[in-house]
């Protein structure tokens, strides 16, 4: 529109700056570097840790793990060796595959008590909605194994039932 008015005589003109405007990074590095660190390191580690926690919680809350822990807490030999209360450790390993009618589970669980610790190994199969335990054994640190299967489960494990006679073909008559 209009040009700048002329300077009055004797006045000093404003200085002309040759400095360039600073770049984006030089203006924003104080928040960008911590955010970059968070996105590259903290966020992935948190996600991995959350996933591991979810898997461990799922294994610890399975029917097989709860039943095994209940049997361990009620076993007098194990109470004598580990003390009371007997608690499940944090790092449960194995797998549990379940549908409403059938499934299988293979778990290894650390057990701890005031007197000692041990490791429980459990193997179970689910048929017709009911869990059948094949192995439920605690190896106590310092020596000794404790089998937590009841007598009926031990008999079934040691002497599997013969196949149903209706499935075995024609009768000799």
How would you describe what is shown here?
This protein is of the alpha+beta class. It folds into two domains: 29-60; 63-161, Nuclear Transport Factor 2, Chain: A (Roll), CATH 3.10.450. Helix content is 37%, strand content 25%. The protein is built from four helices and six strands, in the order H-H-H-E-E-E-E-E-E-H. The protein has helices at 24-60, 63-74, 76-82, 151-158, and strands spanning 87-88, 93-98, 103-112, 117-127, 130-140, 145-147. Strands 1, 2, 3, 4, 5 and 6 form a six-stranded antiparallel beta sheet that branches. Strand 4 (117-127) and strand 5 (130-140) form a beta hairpin.
What keywords describe this structure?
alpha+beta, single chain, 173 residues, rod-shaped, 2 domains, Nuclear Transport Factor 2, Chain: A
Helix content: 25-40%
Domain module count = 2
> Which structural class do the helices and strands define?
alpha+beta
**What's the CATH class of the largest domain, please?**
Alpha Beta
**Count of β-strands:** 6
The CATH topology of the largest domain corresponds to Nuclear Transport Factor 2, Chain: A
Alpha carbon gyration radius: 35 Å
Q: Could you give a short account of the major beta sheet?
A: 6 strands, antiparallel
Order of helices and strands: HHHEEEEEEH
């Amino acid at each position: 529109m209009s040009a700048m008015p002329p300077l009055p005589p004797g006045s000093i003109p404003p200085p002309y700056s040759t400095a360039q405007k600073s770049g984006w990074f030089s203006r924003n590095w104080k928040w960008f570097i911590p955010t970059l660190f968070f996105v590259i390191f903290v966020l992935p580690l948190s996600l991995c840790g959350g996933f591991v926690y979810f898997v461990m919680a799922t294994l610890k809350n399975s029917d097989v793990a709860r039943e095994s822990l209940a049997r361990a807490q009620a076993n007098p030999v194990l109470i004598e060796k580990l003390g009371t209360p007997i608690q499940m450790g944090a790092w449960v390993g194995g797998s549990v595959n379940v549908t409403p009618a059938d499934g299988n589970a293979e778990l290894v669980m650390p057990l701890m008590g005031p007197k000692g610790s041990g490791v429980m190994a459990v193997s179970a199969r689910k048929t017709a909605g009911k869990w059948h335990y094949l192995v439920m054994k605690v190896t106590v640190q310092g020596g000794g194994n404790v089998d937590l299967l009841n007598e009926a489960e031990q008999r079934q494990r040691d002497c599997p039932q013969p196949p149903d006679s209706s499935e075995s073909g024609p009768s000799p008559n």
